[in-house]
Design goal:
alpha+beta, N-reg_PII_CS, 18% helix, Alpha-Beta Plaits, elongated, Nitrogen regulatory protein P-II, two-stranded antiparallel sheet, 6 strands, transcription regulation, 112 residues
């Protein structure tokens, strides 16, 4: 099993979720986060005054998937979250050793 973690622009969430649903993804976790990458934040103008934004708002999506689903999930997220502009985000794939559904006690693939 793998945990696919993606950092995306907030307005792309609905598109990403709609792209994952046909793949059989039944659940995901979304967290509001702030951060910066290579762009090191950006300069904004508000009411005529210029100020520097160090941390930009992003969303972190986490999806636990079976090993055979990883490539399809990563491709779906990458395709739908891409705007072609700086700050589109990143996708991380991590190993998951064990999963347990608390309500039923199901483990591993059955718990997904």
């Amino acid at each position: 099993m793998k945990l696919v973690m993606a950092i995306i622009k907030p307005f792309k969430l609905d598109e990403v979720r709609e792209a994952l649903t046909p793949l059989g993804i039944q659940g995901l976790t979304v967290t509001e986060v702030k951060g910066f990458g290579r762009q090191k934040g950006q300069t904004e103008i508000y009411r005529g005054a210029e100020y520097h934004v160090s941390f930009l708002p992003k969303l972190k999506i986490e999806v636990a998937v079976a090993n055979d689903m990883v490539d399809a999930v990563v491709e779906a997220i990458a395709t739908t979250a891409r705007t072609g502009k700086i700050g589109d985000g990143k996708i991380f794939v991590l190993d998951v050793e064990r999963v347990m559904r608390i309500r039923t006690g199901e483990t591993d693939d059955a718990a997904l």
